[in-house]
Structure formats: C-alpha cells, structure tokens
Recover the amino acids of this structure.
C-alpha cells in the first residue's frame, strides 16, 4: 500500500481525478443515490420553473370568490389536489412553495458551510488557545436545545423586522445555527490530513501556510463536507417546515410548512390540505437524504466493502 | 511426520458490487507436523483469505466456491458451521495481524481467555480462570494473576500480542496460524514474539503456519514455503531451496526486494502493483510485471508443475530462464 | 473509582459554560429590542399597562442590560421563574409540563431503543440482503418525514376516519373516559403521539446501530473471536453488539436535546400539554417569562441527560476512565 501511495505522490492531480472517477462509478451503481439525485434535480426544476406550470399565483385566494373553495382532490381537474377553505389551490401552492423551501434549505446550508469551514479550518490548522476556544464553542452548540432557541429567535425577529424580510430571516437563523457539525468535521479532517505525507512534503518544499491550506487540504476536506451539506439541506427543510407550521415563519411567502399550518386548521374536514404538501416535504427531504447517503458511500468506500 | 492440514484446489471468491473478486483461485498445499510452513506474498495475494477459508470463517460477500479441506486426513465439510467450529480454536489456532485491535476492548483479558477456554472444555468458571492464568504464564506475561483483570488498553502492544497468542492456544490446537504476527510491533518486541512462537512450537509440539510478506521472517521461522501471487500458488518449496534457487520469477523478485547483510547488492523493488482480481490478467497472472514474459505467458495459464524433490512451480519458462539473486 | 468520580466531575463542570451560554443567548434574544417590554408592546396590541408594569419589575428594565441579566439569572437559580403574563406563577405551572413531556419522551426512547437496536443488528448481519435493503429504505423514509406530519396523518386515519383513538390532549378532563377508566383513558391518549415519536426514533436508532455494527463487525477482534471457536451468537451479541451499542447510546443520550426539540411541533399537533406545547403557546403570545423558563428547563434536562450518558459510557467502556 505504501508503495502505491508514494508512487502516486508526484502525480497528485491524476490520483485526484481517478479518485473522482472511482467515486462517480460507485455513485452511479448505487441505485438509491441515483434516485436521490433524480429527486433533487426534479425538486430544483420545480422550484425554478414551477411558477410557469402553476395555474394560480402564489397565495391567491381565487376560489374564495369563485365558489370553488374547500374542494376535495381529484374532483375538479382545474384543482387536481383540491382547495383550502380560504380558496387557495393546493397544487399551485405546492409548486410555489418549492422555491421557498429550496431557498431556505440551500442558502441556509451555504451560510453554515461557509462559517463552519472557516471556523473548523482555523481550529484544525492552528493550535493553541483560540482553537481550543473554538472547539469549546462548537461543543456548546452541540448541547444547545437548538430548535427552541431558533423558534424563539424566529418569533422575536418576526415582530421586530415586521415581516419585511420574509424567508431570509429564517435562512439567516438556520445558517447561524447549522455550522457546528461542519466545523467539527472540518477540524477533524484537517487534523488528519495535515499529518499525511503529501502535505508534509508540500510544507518542506516551502509552500506557504495559506497555499497548503487551500490547494491541498480544502480539496480533501470537501468530500465529507459535501455529504454533510446534502444532509443539512434535508434537515433545514424539515426545520423550516416546523417553524412555518407553528406559525413562526413568514405568513406572506408560499412554503410547504405554511400550507401544512393552514391544513391543520381544517384537518377534521379537509385532509387533503395536510396530506399533499406533507408528501412534497417527504419527497424533497428524502431526495437530499438519499443523495447524502449515496455520496457518503461513494466517497467513503470503507463502509461498503 | 504426519500430514496435518491439506487444502486442495481451494477457490474463495468475493461477490462484491463491483464484480467477483477471485481472492483465492485454485490453491493447494499441505502442512505437515513439525514442519513450519510460510505463506508469503504481497498484501492482496490471498494469504489470509486462504487460511480463513481453511478455518471456515470467510465472511460475506466472500464464499468458498470449491475445494477440499482435510485435517489429519479427514475431509471437512466447509459448508457446515458446526463441523468447522470444531476445528476453530480447537485444532487450528489463529493469531490475527494487529494486536491493537485483536482483543475486544470492553472485556478483561481474563474474561476473554476464560470464554474461549470454556468454549472448548467443560470446566467451571474458576477452573477456566486458573487455566487462563497458566496460559498467560506460558506466553511469558509477568504477574499473570493481576493481568487477568486488566483491559486490553492497559497493556503494551507486545503484551497484547502475547495475550492474543495465549487466546489462540486456549483450545490447545495442533496447528497455530500466525498472521503477520510482528508487523505492528517495535523491532525489539518483534524478536521477543518470534522467540516465543519458536518456544511454543517446540514445547507444545505444535505446528505453525506463518503468514507474512517478509522473506526475512520466512528464512528465520519456516521449513517450507508457499509463494502466493494474486490468489494463485506461484511456487512451493523447502525454505532452504527457495532461497538458494528460486524457480519462479516472482519468488526471485521477492527475494531481491529484501535487504541482505551478507552481500552488497542493490535492492530491487518489484515494479507495478498487484493486479485487479476481478478481471485478472490473461495467462500467467504475473506476466505484466515479469521480466521474462513471452507470448505464451500472456495466452495460457501455467499449471502448477511438480518438478520433483517436493517442489512445484507455476511458470511456463522455469526451465529456460536463469533466475539470479543479484550479486 | 476515584478517577471515575473525577471524570464525572469534569463532565459536570462542562455543563456550567453550556448553561451560561444558553442563558446569555436566551436573554440576548429576548432583549433584542432594547428590552423585553418593547417586544411585548409591539407584538401584543391588547396588552394592559398592569401586565407591562409587572414585566418591567421582573426584568428590572430600569437597570442596564448586563445588570438585568444577573438579576434574571439569580432569580432563576433561586427558583423564581417570575409571573406569566396571563396565568400566574410560572414555576408552579412548569412542573406538570415537565412530567407530561417525559411521560411521552421516555417511553418513546425506551421503545425505540428496544425496537431499533435489534432491527439495526439484523440489518448489519444481513448486509446487502433483501431484508437489509427494505430496512434501510424504510429507515431513510422515517428520518425524512416531519414528525408532526406523521402525527397529523395518524390523527386523520385513527381518530377521524376510524374513531378509535383520541386526537387531543393527554387525558379526558371529565367523563366519559376512553375505554371506561381514567387510567385506560390516559393510555388511549398516549398511543398516537407515542407511536409517532417511537417510529421516528426507531428510524434514527436503526440507522445508527446498523452503521456502528458494520464498523465493529469488520474489527479484528470479531475475526479473532470467530477464529478461536466462539459461536456466532456469542460473537454477535456478546462482543459485536456491546461494542456497537456504546456509541449508539452515547449519541442518543447526547442528542436528547434534538429529541426534545421535536417536541414543540409534535406536542402542538396532539395538544399534548407538555413543555413543547406550552413553549409554542407562550412564544406565540409573547409570554416571555414562561418562554425563558422553558428554554432554561429544557437546557437543564438536556445537560442532565448528557451527564447520565457520560456516566453510562464510562460504565460501559473501560477506556474512558483513564482519558
């Protein structure tokens, strides 16, 4: 094994490429991962182009004044998934909600990844008091009852910012609370990788610290982070759904959580308003979870073999 | 000198997602009493899988596809878990590679020894414990009584390897397999462990299979050698003859990659890597790395040819080529 | 034993910064608008002057922020959780909430461990089999569903469509009782929320157990155990399972906070009168003394769970004691 590694050392780039090729092959063979990728692709497509298919605009109470409120599904094909008491068309609203959930899931994750990478890299690459402190803060974050704090945060912000920001508020809050896992894993990976031969070699050749950090280490750190990010998107969508369901979200933007909240008001009579957006949530979250699991299998062959 | 273990035409394949890995492909050999055998080859050549197959503990997705296993002339049904369990620990003891992970970290040494002893002998717990102490003494662990109550992490690597050997001896096996017993140890500890193995071999009248990639260990510890390459036997010979006149280019290459004190010669590493065992090379599996490759080597699989004097070699050209230890 | 005690004390000391961090964070959020009274005035239009005055007194709004924090913290530590904006002393109301939440959470956790661990072991032992495939697929569905949504679906089916079980509350306040007696009535109320919570936790625990079990089954000591003639049963249950389960229990214990965090939505769905439901109502109505008290109590529960987990870990794994 060690021969193989040292032989490959001068051609680090090629090895990286072939590793990616191997990972891609493993990923393609993994049916559930492919299913995840297809679902995520579909979800993104719906989020962006859904508004063109949606028969009614976002948050439109069209049926309230046109006598088609509270229709059950599969009865009137102008409203395939039925309508709410308040006249909102469920099918349209699910299409509109996709963008909101994608926005929350992806952008909040991007914020967490950016923050987590910087903090984790710093804690892993430098040693000393600052890094110990960062590690401590990360651990404290792990112990926090995050969701209740997020909920309180969202509720207070709702009042103070007077709803002008809509979903962005939730995005920022989720972003702020999502970074610790990323930071923790980044730190661990960096501690591991910086002891590896090729980084030591680059160092002894006089590469500057920041160049080592970016060229060599971050490339290697990325694979676990991609996996975590995919799972974090799933988690963020679920959290957004909970926040909106409890009425702490933005009441003017279409999201699936908001639709579920409205559905719950009429759950006794209009089950379809609860069922269909829930299925949308499950499918989207499942997509990101499958993708994350599949990537993890593809990028980390150890568990599979 | 009786025959102890005989493996005939063993094939063990791993059915993975990526394809069928032919980890052991038609391997035969015999272990005789009092004639320590070395299984040598690079990592991935199938040494460990061969032995695990003989003990019936290949785990999924691996499976013994064909082959016969005899212990003292009796054929074992390798598909029968019950029959194979009687062999394990009781007839064949196994010491695994890494002393750092070969003991369960959550139980005391004593508990683990006692457990194995009571698996093989119907004795009381106290009796099992006392026998455990004796075993620890046998493998040269000081203060055996207190050590029984230690957890693995409280011992040094060398001590743990001794405990692992003690556990392998707990069923009083006739054959001990030591799988790279010294790879993960310090040099000084290595010597001690080897010394211990030699003593045990002599005192307990036990036979030994040594699995290693280290030709030095082979020379020191064994009388016969089976050289494995990519799941096939490349050459089988007495240790002395193999070192004198290797017949297979791979054996010669292995010997030439070992530093020697008596000659000033350049070390020649073997170029290339072990082939992919899902789609092994056509013909002789060694041909892509061999210096003597001809067309025939690429086309036909060389048979394992008995060349007399209890030697066998699997090479089309063993008669024509002149293999030299580099001088 | 001395070192074990040391270890526990060290872990307990870690609880202090966490507790302080949560208290500061909670305090800062509620003081985001300068002081909590402003938030309530902005958010609740029907608030009376008397209520605001009471809030001012409790939060000492005439003092600077950091002084207010210490007043509030020392009040909390002395058990003075203040007066709710609407319904009297917070402290007297919070204790039944804790009980009701635990009445749901603890059985769910135990059931989930009891069901999830064997399934995870089976799945790992039969990796790549149809059973394993079915289990992993079901489990990933399980972790992809919002807990409260499963609750809603069960309510629709088992409470509205088939009127078998109650959909709201933890008990009937007055007769007629479900199934004839107050005790059975409480059980009837427990079934749906407990099933939902168990289902979701089973998915998580199955996945955790499976991954850890696969990791452990690859270890040398498992091979060595088999090679020394131990039965497959002993190898699996005495050695592999114990090694695999230790990290599972640890992760479950340490993520008790996450489990409790699922409580607000689930308890709201079932109008289950526990901490989570109370939190949602209090946060909606900006009953800040209650909100703060609940967050702090949940934090204390999480910390207690963490310390218990650490103890269990030290008990299960001999290696911890020396580190």
């Amino acid at each position: 094994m060690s021969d193989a590694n040292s032989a490959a050392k001068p051609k680090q780039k090629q090895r990286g490429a072939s590793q990616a090729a191997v990972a891609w092959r493993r990923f393609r063979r993994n049916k559930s991962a492919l299913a995840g990728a297809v679902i995520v692709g579909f979800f993104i497509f719906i989020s962006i182009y859904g508004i063109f298919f949606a028969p009614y605009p976002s948050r439109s109470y069209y049926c309230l004044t046109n006598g088609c409120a509270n229709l059950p599904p599969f009865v009137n094909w102008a409203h395939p998934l039925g309508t709410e008491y308040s006249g909102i068309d469920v099918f349209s609203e699910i299409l509109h909600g996709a963008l909101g959930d994608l926005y929350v899931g992806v952008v909040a994750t991007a914020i967490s990844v950016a923050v987590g990478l910087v903090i984790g890299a710093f804690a892993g690459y430098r040693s000393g008091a600052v890094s110990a402190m960062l590690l401590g803060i990360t651990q404290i974050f792990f112990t926090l009852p995050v969701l209740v704090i997020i909920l309180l945060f969202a509720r207070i912000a709702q009042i103070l910012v007077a709803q002008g920001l809509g979903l962005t508020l939730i995005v920022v809050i989720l972003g702020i609370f999502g970074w610790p896992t990323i930071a923790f894993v980044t730190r661990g990976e960096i501690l591991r990788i910086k002891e590896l031969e090729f980084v030591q070699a680059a160092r002894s050749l006089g590469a500057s610290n920041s160049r080592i950090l970016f060229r060599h280490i971050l490339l290697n750190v990325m694979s676990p982070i991609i996996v975590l990010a995919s799972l974090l998107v799933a988690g963020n969508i679920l959290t957004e759904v909970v926040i909106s369901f409890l009425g702490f979200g933005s009441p003017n933007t279409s999201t699936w959580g908001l639709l579920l909240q409205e559905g719950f008001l009429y759950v006794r009579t209009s089950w379809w308003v609860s069922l269909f957006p829930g299925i949308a949530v499950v499918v989207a979250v499942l997509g990101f979870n499958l993708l994350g699991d599949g990537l993890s299998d593809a990028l980390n062959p150890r568990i599979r073999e | 000198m009786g025959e102890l273990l005989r493996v005939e035409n063993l094939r063990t394949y791993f059915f993975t997602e990526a394809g069928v890995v032919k980890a052991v492909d038609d391997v035969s050999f015999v272990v005789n009493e009092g004639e320590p055998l070395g299984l040598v080859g690079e990592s991935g050549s199938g040494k460990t899988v061969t032995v695990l197959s003989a003990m019936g503990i290949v785990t999924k997705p691996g499976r013994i596809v064909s082959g016969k296993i005899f212990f003292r002339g009796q054929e074992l049904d390798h598909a029968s878990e019950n029959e194979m369990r009687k062999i394990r620990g009781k007839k064949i003891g196994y010491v695994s590679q890494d002393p750092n992970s070969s003991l369960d970290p959550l139980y005391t040494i004593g508990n683990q020894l006692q457990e194995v002893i009571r698996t093989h002998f119907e004795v009381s717990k106290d009796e099992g414990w006392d026998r455990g102490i004796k075993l620890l003494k046998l493998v040269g662990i000081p203060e055996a009584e207190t050590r029984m109550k230690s957890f693995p992490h409280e011992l040094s690597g060398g001590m743990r390897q001794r405990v692992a050997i003690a556990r392998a001896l707990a069923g009083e096996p006739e054959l001990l397999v030591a799988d790279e017993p010294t790879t993960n140890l310090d040099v000084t500890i290595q010597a001690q462990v080897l010394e211990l193995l030699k003593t045990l071999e002599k005192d307990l009248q036990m036979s030994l299979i040594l699995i290693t990639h280290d030709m030095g260990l082979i020379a020191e510890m064994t009388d016969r050698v089976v050289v494995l390459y990519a799941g096939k036997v490349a050459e089988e010979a007495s240790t002395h003859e193999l070192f004198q006149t290797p017949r297979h280019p791979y054996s010669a290459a292995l010997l030439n990659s070992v530093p020697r004190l008596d000659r000033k010669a350049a070390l020649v590493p073997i170029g290339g890597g072990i082939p992919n065992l899902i789609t092994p090379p056509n013909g002789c599996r060694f041909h892509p790395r061999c210096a003597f490759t001809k067309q025939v080597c690429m086309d036909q699989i060389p048979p394992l040819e008995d060349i007399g004097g209890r030697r066998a070699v699997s090479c089309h050209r063993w008669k024509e080529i002149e293999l030299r230890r580099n001088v | 034993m001395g070192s074990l005690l040391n270890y526990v004390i060290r872990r307990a000391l870690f609880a202090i910064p966490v507790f302080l961090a949560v208290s500061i964070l909670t305090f800062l959020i509620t003081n985001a608008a300068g002081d909590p009274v402003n938030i309530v005035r902005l958010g609740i239009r029907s608030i009376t002057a008397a209520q605001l005055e009471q809030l001012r007194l409790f939060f000492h709004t005439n003092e600077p922020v950091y002084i207010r924090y210490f007043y509030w913290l020392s009040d909390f530590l002395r058990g003075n959780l203040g007066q709710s904006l609407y319904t009297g002393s917070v402290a007297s109301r919070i204790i039944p909430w804790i009980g009701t939440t635990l009445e749901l959470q603890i059985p769910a956790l135990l059931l989930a461990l009891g069901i999830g661990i064997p399934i995870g072991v089976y799945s790992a032992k039969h990796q790549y089999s149809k059973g394993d495939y079915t289990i992993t697929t079901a489990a990933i569905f399980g972790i992809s569903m919002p807990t409260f949504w499963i609750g809603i679906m069960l309510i629709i089916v088992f409470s509205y469509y088939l009127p078998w079980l109650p959909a709201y509350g933890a008990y009937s306040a007055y007769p007629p009782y479900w199934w004839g007696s107050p005790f059975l009535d409480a059980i009837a109320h427990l079934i749906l929320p407990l099933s939902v919570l168990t289902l979701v936790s089973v998915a998580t625990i199955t996945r955790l157990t499976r991954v850890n079990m696969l990791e452990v089954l690859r270890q040398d000591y498992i091979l060595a155990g088999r090679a020394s003639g131990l039965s497959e049963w002993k190898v699996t249950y005495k050695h592999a399972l114990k090694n695999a389960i230790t990290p599972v229990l640890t992760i479950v214990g340490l993520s008790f906070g996450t489990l409790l965090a699922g409580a607000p939505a689930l308890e709201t769905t079932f109008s289950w009168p526990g901490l989570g439901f109370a939190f949602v109502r209090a946060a909606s109505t900006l009953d800040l003394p209650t909100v703060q008290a609940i967050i702090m109590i949940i934090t204390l529960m999480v910390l207690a769970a963490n310390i218990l987990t650490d103890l269990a870990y030290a008990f299960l794994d001999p290696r911890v004691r020396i580190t």
User: Anything to note?
Assistant: Residues 52 and 58 of chain B are 6 Å apart (CA to CA).
